[in-house]
Design goal:
about 120 residues; four-stranded antiparallel beta sheet; about 0% helix; about 50% strand
């Protein structure tokens, strides 16, 4: 599985961005997927995840602002980010679970990673 993330950029606080993650291969629909982020000097954290069945998880800091979704027909994962805050500044990575449709909180359970797309929120 190869993942290609895109959609990052510079946005003012309060603005919106939509990240996309295009996946290769035929197994996208059966894999749980996640969006992680890593800010400078901080550890990588799970921002949102989605199971193969569409169940979702969000870290508390983005609940109500971010929406994760997937289009299995297009082999694409999305992260709609609204009401962006300065603290959302980070490199965002999409990732796929190695097997199965259940998402995990632990990044070590994700075997496939995109290259990262940088999101910078300015004041």
């Amino acid at each position: 599985v190869q993942l290609q993330a895109s959609g990052g950029g510079l946005v003012q606080a309060g603005g919106s961005l939509r990240l996309s993650c295009a996946a290769s291969g035929r197994t996208f629909s059966v894999r749980a997927m996640g969006w992680f982020r890593q800010a400078p000097g901080k550890e990588r954290e799970l921002v949102a995840a989605i199971s193969s069945g569409g169940s979702t998880y969000y870290v508390d800091s983005v609940k109500g602002r971010f929406t994760i979704s997937r289009d299995n027909a297009k082999n694409t994962l999305y992260l709609q980010m609204n009401s962006l805050k300065l603290e959302d500044t980070a490199v965002y990575y999409c990732a796929a679970v190695s097997g199965g449709g259940i998402y995990y909180y632990d990044s070590s359970r994700y075997d496939y990673w995109g290259q990262g797309t940088k999101v910078t929120v300015s004041s």
